[in-house]
């Protein structure tokens, strides 16, 4: 009988329920502190994409400028000085392999691969795509050092023979479709990224294809017209191509690094919750009913 008796203190006219802390939070519209930390967490800020991309691209530009200056000075001097300048040019010539320029371009791709592996190991949604990114970046790094793409010239000769014009670097006929397929495979993952990184990677991919395929094709036409003789026009165009490529990879690396968030208070890094899949709205189990409502007890009958 006592279970069915109404509580006078609770049901008396004019009486009000004493709100607990959670009701007060809901009444003011303020989110639960734990939820607020999970969703927004103002203590974490993404790494500076533009600043990182600018610094990395500037290093590539410096390498090309050194190559340009030493090439020009070498061609305008004679004797031992000219030879020494040519030696310096060789170390920074972006058209050669096994030098400073190659080391830097290879290092950029390796860093892209390392960041992609770190993201994949955090087990985000579509983590297989991040392993694809890591694999592609590793292969690109090896290609920078060993010029693997030029091995495609042989198979591409059959296709090039059907073209109405001479194409010196025939590898682009195979390289471009490969690049488009890789881009299509990764497109969904890229479009799901935060907007800054998304735009950065899309621009980087466009720039890289423009340099590696577009400018390379024009360079091949230049060589074909000169019967394979390397002219200053070809050297200058190669410098433009490599600047575009290094800028593209620098932007891609910066866009991936911007997915990491840094807390100055704790000095820690974390992956953006929108990428890791650990952010978003609070779960239903943690939602509370609005203030002033009661949860009906379960029917025991």
TrEMBL record:
<feature type="transmembrane region" description="Helical">
    <location>
        <begin position="199"/>
        <end position="215"/>
    </location>
</feature>
<feature type="transmembrane region" description="Helical">
    <location>
        <begin position="101"/>
        <end position="122"/>
    </location>
</feature>
<feature type="compositionally biased region" description="Basic and acidic residues">
    <location>
        <begin position="33"/>
        <end position="43"/>
    </location>
</feature>
<feature type="transmembrane region" description="Helical">
    <location>
        <begin position="52"/>
        <end position="73"/>
    </location>
</feature>
<keyword id="KW-0812">Transmembrane</keyword>
<feature type="transmembrane region" description="Helical">
    <location>
        <begin position="168"/>
        <end position="187"/>
    </location>
</feature>
<feature type="region of interest" description="Disordered">
    <location>
        <begin position="1"/>
        <end position="43"/>
    </location>
</feature>
<keyword id="KW-0472">Membrane</keyword>
<keyword id="KW-1133">Transmembrane helix</keyword>
<protein>
    <submittedName>
        <fullName>Uncharacterized protein</fullName>
    </submittedName>
</protein>
<feature type="region of interest" description="Disordered">
    <location>
        <begin position="270"/>
        <end position="301"/>
    </location>
</feature>
<feature type="compositionally biased region" description="Low complexity">
    <location>
        <begin position="11"/>
        <end position="31"/>
    </location>
</feature>
<feature type="transmembrane region" description="Helical">
    <location>
        <begin position="235"/>
        <end position="260"/>
    </location>
</feature>
């Amino acid at each position: 009988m006592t279970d069915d008796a109404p509580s006078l203190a609770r049901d008396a006219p004019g009486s009000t329920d004493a709100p607990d802390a959670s009701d007060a939070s809901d009444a003011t519209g303020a989110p639960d502190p734990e939820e607020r930390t999970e969703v927004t967490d103002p203590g974490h800020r993404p790494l500076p994409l533009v600043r990182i991309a600018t610094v990395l691209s500037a290093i590539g530009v410096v390498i090309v400028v050194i190559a340009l200056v030493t090439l020009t000075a070498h061609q305008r001097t004679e004797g031992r000085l000219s030879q020494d300048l040519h030696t310096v040019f060789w170390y920074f010539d972006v058209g050669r392999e096994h030098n400073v320029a190659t080391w830097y371009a290879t290092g950029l791709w390796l860093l892209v691969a390392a960041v992609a592996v770190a993201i994949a190991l955090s087990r985000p949604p579509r983590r297989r795509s991040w392993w694809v990114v890591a694999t592609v970046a590793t292969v690109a790094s090896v290609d920078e050092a060993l010029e693997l793409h030029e091995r495609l010239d042989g198979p591409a000769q059959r296709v090039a023979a059907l073209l109405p014009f001479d194409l010196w670097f025939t590898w682009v006929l195979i390289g471009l479709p490969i690049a488009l397929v890789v881009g299509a495979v990764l497109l969904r993952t890229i479009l799901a990224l935060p907007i800054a990184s998304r735009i950065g990677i899309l621009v980087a991919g466009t720039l890289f294809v423009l340099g590696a395929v577009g400018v390379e094709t024009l360079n091949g036409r230049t060589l074909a017209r000169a019967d394979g003789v390397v002219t200053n026009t070809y050297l200058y165009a190669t410098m433009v191509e490599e600047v575009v490529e290094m800028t593209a990879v620098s932007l891609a690396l910066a866009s991936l690094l911007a997915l990491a968030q840094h807390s100055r208070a704790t000095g820690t890094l974390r992956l953006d919750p929108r990428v890791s899949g650990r952010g978003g709205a609070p779960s239903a189990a943690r939602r509370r009913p609005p203030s002033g409502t009661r949860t009906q007890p379960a029917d025991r009958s």
